[in-house]
Specification:
The chain is α/β, with parallel strands linked by helices. The protein has helices at about 20-30, 65-70, 170-180, 215-225, 250-255, 285-290, 305-315, and strands spanning about 1-10, 15, 45-50, 55, 75, 80, 85-90, 100-115, 115-125, 135-140, 145-150, 160-165, 185-195, 205-210, 235-240, 260-265, 280, 300-305, 325-330. The chain has a six-stranded antiparallel beta sheet. A six-stranded parallel beta sheet has the order 17-16-15-14-18-19, sandwiched between helices. Strands 2-1-7-3-5 form a five-stranded mixed beta sheet. Helix 6 (about 285-290) packs parallel to helix 7. The protein binds flavin-adenine dinucleotide and FE2/S2 (inorganic) cluster (FES). Flavin-adenine dinucleotide binds next to strand 11, strand 12 and helix 3.
């Protein structure tokens, strides 16, 4: 059995087999809807059900309250149609998204960027086959069918693909990166994935990164800095202590080179040795304190799920339209693999 799903405002429609999520069915029909984690943990795929009924599926309850459901909201990576539907969603222009493909790569360079972040540079075999938009991520395909997601930190066209890998002690993949991986090792990647890329609008941009959430912002900024910066952009980069802010000289350099770019580092728990006079507290709260026109901005948030969720809740409450909030939540794959 299948149901017809019609998208507003575009009026396009597609068929969804019973038991398939709205996101999967749209993708099968060649229609790209915003998404990131694809497991109900980040809110990137949220849209509105204007008519019809859905099974809301499995998702993090704090992302979709009973009130949200009464308002017609659903997470399209989890919701499955139970009838024909009319939904409200913002489609992504097909030509901007590259099809995901599986490619082989070799470790070309490794460098510790701080006490728990490894810079990893990969040489992709047949690099011409692999294209991506700055800000997207790939899955590393591991033994036993496990996958681990990491965002590209380099811009498309760079000789090597750059990644910033935070060590999760005891982690299946990141233990290997920190303890045994070496130059020349082979890796298999599947991507590009996700819809965390810069939308072409005239609105000011606010980037909010937590820890290695800086990686996709760097990918975007490497591309932006190669051209002309046409609108104000501010990066708020949050870390626990000063030693966790790896590569701070990069955004500080963008700040110095471009009048329209500002960098605000935010430290949540300055250590005893940290000589810190900058912003303190949670990074999304620094945004609320320092960006009076937040509702008029495009906001890109990337990092730990708890940070993304808090930002989403508080920024929407401040009047930011849902469709101007873009996020990649660094959810863990091991639980669902
Ligand atoms: C779209 C996306 C993009 C991502 N991009 C990046 C990136 O650019 N850089 C980066 O460093 N990370 C990124 N992550 C997070 C990264 O995928 C995980 O940290 C990684 O999967 C951990 O793999 P592992 O095999 O080492 O740990 P696992 O073996 O999967 O986990 C071991 C234990 O640690 C817990 N755990 C797993 N990951 C984390 C974590 N991140 N924080 C705290 N506890 C954890 C697990 O629940 C488990 O108990 C991204 C995640 C997503 C979804
Ligand atoms: S909650 Fe649906 S893509 Fe993350």
């Amino acid at each position: 059995m299948s149901y017809k799903v019609t998208i507003q405002p575009s009026g396009r429609s597609f068929q969804a087999e019973a038991g398939t999520t709205i996101l999967e069915a749209a993708d099968e029909a060649g229609i790209k809807l915003p998404h990131a984690c694809q497991n109900g943990a980040c809110g990137a795929c949220e849209g509105r059900v204007l008519s019809g009924t859905v099974d809301y599926g499995e998702y993090q309850e704090s992302l979709l309250t009973d009130f949200d459901k009464e308002e017609g909201l659903a997470l399209f990576c989890a919701a499955k149609p139970l009838s024909d539907l009319v939904i409200e969603a913002w489609e992504i222009e097909e030509e901007t998204i590259h099809e995901a493909t599986t490619v082989q790569a070799r470790v070309a360079r490794m460098e510790k960027l701080c006490h728990d972040v490894m810079g990893l540079w990969l040489e992709v075999a047949d690099a011409g086959k692999f294209s991506f938009l700055p800000g997207q991520y790939v899955d590393f395909l591991l033994e036993d069918g496990q996958r681990r997601s990491f965002s590209m930190a380099s811009a498309p066209g760079a000789d090597l693909l750059e990644f910033h890998v935070r060590h999760v002690p005891g982690g299946f993949f990141t233990d290997r990166v920190f303890n045994s991986m070496k130059v020349g090792d082979a890796l298999t990647l599947n991507g590009p994935l996700g819809t965390f890329f810069l939308r072409d609008t005239n609105r000011p941009v606010v980037f909010v990164a937590g820890g290695t959430g800086f990686a996709p912002v760097k990918s975007i900024m490497d591309k932006v800095m190669a051209g002309e910066l046409k609108r104000p952009m501010t990066l708020f980069w949050g870390a626990r202590q000063v030693r966790d802010l790896y590569l701070p000289q990069l955004p500080a350099g963008w700040d110095g080179a471009q009048a329209q770019f500002s960098f605000v580092p935010v430290i949540s728990e300055p250590g005893p040795g940290d000589d810190w006079s900058g912003a303190t507290g949670y990074v999304h709260q620094a945004v609320l304190a320092q960006v009076p026109n937040l509702a008029e901005c495009d906001v890109y948030v990337c990092g730990a799920p708890v940070m993304v969720e808090a930002a989403r809740r508080d920024f929407l409450a401040r009047g930011l339209p849902r469709e101007h909030f873009h996020a990649d939540a660094y959810t863990f794959q091991s639980a669902s693999a």
